[in-house]
């Protein structure tokens, strides 16, 4: 831990009491933001020069299957079930989980993501869980490790009206590995919910999560599965909705569903690239849930979903959300349908920061550049930075424009390059895993 002073950047705090500070400073003491303003002094502090650059809160990827990063580019969201989930997991060892998660977390950091909700459904054995957690810790990212079902045993058993309860190993992980809810890596449960398991199993799984005192993430309103269950109606009937539940995807949630989530304090996580792709493959709505959620009083977070075949980062997801809402507005005018929501680039930045923090139950720690919060920040450079307009971060930036990333007060990317020992060995581990997997499947080329 050390004292850092980010000097002379265009600070976009997203904290309404602070706003934007041109030529602003951010003082970091250890893992915490101590002050935000102009002309801050900190004798002996390490200076990070942000002149001509834009300083924003760290991005929050609220739904990503990080383990799939070892096979990135090998599939797409619409054929995920038949390839990544059905053909590969039984060959995916703990060492592959470590390699994929480490590589994926570092890729996220490289693109400006400081916090990820790791929806991990590759936990075939306790060793898989341990390696997943170890990789997240080694990467330096802030993470909510969402312990999911072990699809490597039998994907159909776990995802077709499953009668099998969530693995009891979650109790061990909670008590032995992730018992500290103030740590950089914390725990939640990735549950199947009514679209994939029976109401009885869903109720038992929710009781388990609440007994452990951890957040719940489920995938709700997926296009291919709506006919099997009305997720929100089922959860409402069972009395399971609440502020500890966030719903990923949601493209086919109804207006009543969204109202019920809002009333019970739940959250929505849109994954625009994956959601649009899946919707088109099933002939349903071509728009992500973002605008509709906002219209019903929800502030949707954003996620990249499939590391194997989805978007490369949250910059792409923010732009996809903007483009989709503009397209939806045009469609609404031509059909006199639902009133569109006007979404700006600044709004999109809030979805990727403030909303993500709230969805993961971390709003008291991250999401804005505020004194007292954890020091998770991103400094963006490039031609757009000279505009001194944070909208440029959304409209023009990609990973190559991310100059500096700080997580918990630790610089994990500087001058455009990842820092630390994990970055030096991740590529070799990733390549070895891909070659190992290619010996068993045709998904990954040798």
Strand content: 15-25%
Unreliable runs: none
In CATH, the homologous superfamily of the largest domain goes by the name Metal-dependent hydrolases
What structural class do you assign from the helix and strand content? alpha/beta
Nearest-angstrom radius of gyration? 21 Å
Number of separate strands = 18
Could you say what the CATH topology of the largest domain is called? TIM Barrel
CATH C-level class of the largest domain: Alpha Beta
Shape: globular
The average pLDDT value, as a whole number, equals 89
User: Helical proportion?
Assistant: 25-40%
Number of helices: 14
Multimerization state: single chain
Number of domain units = 2
Largest sheet: 9 strands, mixed
- Could you give the distance between the termini? 42 Å
The CATH architecture of the largest domain can be given as: Alpha-Beta Barrel
Pfam family, one: Amidohydro_1
Keywords: Hydrolase
Protein name: Amidohydrolase family protein
Organism: Actinoallomurus oryzae
């Amino acid at each position: 831990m050390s004292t850092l002073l980010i000097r002379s950047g265009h600070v976009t705090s997203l904290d309404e009491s602070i706003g934007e500070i041109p030529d602003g400073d951010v003082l970091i003491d250890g893992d915490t933001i101590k002050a935000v303003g102009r002309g801050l002094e900190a004798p002996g502090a390490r200076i990070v020069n942000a002149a001509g650059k834009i300083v924003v809160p760290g991005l929050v990827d609220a739904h990503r299957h990080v383990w799939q990063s070892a096979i990135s580019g090998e599939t797409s969201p619409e054929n995920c079930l038949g390839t990544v989930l059905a053909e590969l997991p039984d060959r995916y060892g703990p060492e592959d989980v470590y390699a994929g998660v480490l590589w994926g977390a570092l890729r996220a950091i490289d693109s400006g993501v400081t916090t990820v909700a790791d929806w991990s459904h590759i936990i075939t054995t306790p060793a898989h869980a341990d390696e997943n957690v170890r990789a997240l810790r080694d990467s330096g990212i802030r993470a909510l490790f969402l312990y999911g079902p072990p699809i490597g045993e039998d994907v159909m058993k776990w995802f077709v009206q499953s009668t099998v309860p969530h693995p009891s190993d979650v109790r061990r992980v909670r008590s032995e590995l992730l018992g500290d809810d103030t740590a950089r890596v914390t725990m939640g449960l990735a549950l199947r919910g009514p679209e994939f398991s029976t109401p009885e199993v869903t109720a038992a799984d929710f009781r388990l999560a609440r007994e452990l005192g951890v957040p719940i993430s489920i995938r709700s309103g997926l296009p291919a599965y709506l006919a099997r269950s009305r997720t929100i109606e089922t959860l409402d009937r069972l009395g399971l909705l609440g502020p500890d539940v966030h719903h990923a995807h949601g493209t086919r949630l109804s207006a009543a569903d969204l109202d019920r989530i809002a009333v019970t304090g739940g959250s929505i996580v849109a994954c625009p690239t994956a959601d649009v792709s899946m919707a088109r493959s099933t002939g349903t709505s071509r728009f992500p849930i973002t605008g509709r959620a906002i219209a019903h009083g929800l502030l949707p977070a954003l996620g990249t979903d499939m590391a194997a075949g989805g978007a490369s980062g949250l910059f792409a997801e923010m732009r996809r959300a903007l483009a989709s809402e503009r397209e939806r507005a045009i469609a609404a005018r031509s059909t006199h349908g639902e009133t569109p929501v006007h979404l700006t680039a600044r709004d999109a930045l809030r979805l990727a920061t403030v909303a993500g923090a709230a969805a993961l139950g971390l709003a008291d720690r991250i999401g804005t550049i505020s004194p007292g919060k954890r020091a998770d920040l991103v400094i963006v450079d490039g031609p757009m930075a000279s505009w001194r307009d944070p909208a440029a971060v959304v409209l023009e930036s990609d990973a190559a424009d991310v100059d500096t990333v700080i997580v918990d007060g630790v610089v994990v990317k500087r001058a455009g390059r990842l820092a630390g020992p994990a970055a030096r060995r991740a590529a070799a581990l990733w390549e070895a895993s891909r070659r190992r997997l290619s010996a068993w499947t045709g998904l990954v080329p040798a």
